[in-house]
Design goal:
globular; Pantoate--beta-alanine Ligase, Chain: A,domain 2; alpha/beta; 6-stranded parallel sheet; about 290 residues; Rossmann fold; 3-stranded antiparallel sheet
Length: about 290
């Protein structure tokens, strides 16, 4: 549909030009897919672009390291920036345009608006990283205005983020569909993440405990064990590799509240491996 392997995407930095370009494509009857990213792209991002290209006529990928979602103890300057490699990757997967705004265009002088999504952003990452989801919601809302696409693609690895974005879109009546795509994993099960680049070789070996814990949790869930037993299986796997557990909890897929009897759930886990915080989750299908 959009680009072919080896295709060179068009890079756009100016928000007005990006918006006018997308609106013109929409008027021409083209279906637009959008993949928001912070760069340092890997196979997980590539899968999102690939799916968007398969389902849409044109694909926009944004690459923007959003300063508003970094906390005071999180090193914004340390976040990897690999723009040439990122452009090559998304071009090969079919991106038509790559939107690379400067922070000053997203947050010009006098910027005073923040989007706060209350309930689904309150716990887990929201509790550990105060203000993080306000930064996410604010920039995603801005991006959806600049890139008025038909559908936006997000990875399931950051499950809470997808819940927050879907809630914001519903509450603000933003005319865009949200597609949540499966987590892409390394051969040993570790979820692909830009943060994995921070892991030492030893920490990389230990990090697989997150997936091991989730796999064990899914087995316990399918066996009909109580939620507390399912959660204990996740914690045990992390502690067996000396990984401090930030949280390991089974929640409702849509509300992040305690799971409802007979409904699907998701097991969320976060832990610190060396100096790097890693997140993961696994879907738990409905059971009697």
């Amino acid at each position: 549909m959009s680009g072919q392997p080896g295709h060179t995407p068009i890079v756009v930095a100016e928000p007005r030009l990006m918006r006018d370009t997308i609106l013109a494509a929409c008027r021409a009857g083209r279906r637009i897919g959008f993949v928001p990213t912070m760069g340092a792209l890997h196979a997980g991002h590539a899968s999102l672009v690939e799916q968007a290209a398969a389902e849409c006529d044109d694909v926009v990928v944004s690459i923007f390291v959003n300063p508003k979602q970094f906390g005071p103890r999180e090193d914004l300057a340390r976040y990897p920036r690999t723009l040439p490699a990122d452009l090559a990757l998304v071009g090969a997967k079919g991106a038509t345009w790559v939107f690379v705004p400067e922070p000053s265009t997203a947050y010009p002088a006098g910027h005073a608006t923040s989007v706060v999504v209350a309930a689904p952003a309150a716990d887990f990452e929201g509790a550990i990283r105060p203000g993080h989801f306000a930064g996410v919601a604010t920039v995603v809302c801005w991006l959806f205005n600049v890139v008025p696409a038909d559908v936006a693609y997000f990875g399931a690895k950051d499950w809470q983020q997808t819940v927050v974005v879907r809630r914001m879109v519903a509450d603000l009546a933003i005319p865009i569909a949200i597609e949540v795509c499966p987590t892409i994993r390394e051969p040993d099960g570790l979820a692909m993440s830009s943060r994995n680049a921070y892991l030492s070789p030893e920490d990389r070996r230990r990090a697989v405990a997150l997936h091991e814990g989730l796999t064990s949790a899914a087995e316990r869930w399918q066996a009909g064990d109580a939620v507390a037993v399912v959660e204990k299986a996740i914690r045990a796997a992390l502690r067996s590799r000396d990984i401090p557990v930030d949280y390991a909890q089974v929640v409702d897929t849509d509300t992040l509240l305690p799971p409802r009897p007979g409904a699907a759930a998701v097991a969320l886990v976060a832990g610190r491996v060396g100096n790097t915080r890693l997140l993961d989750n696994i879907f738990l299908p409905p059971r009697p």
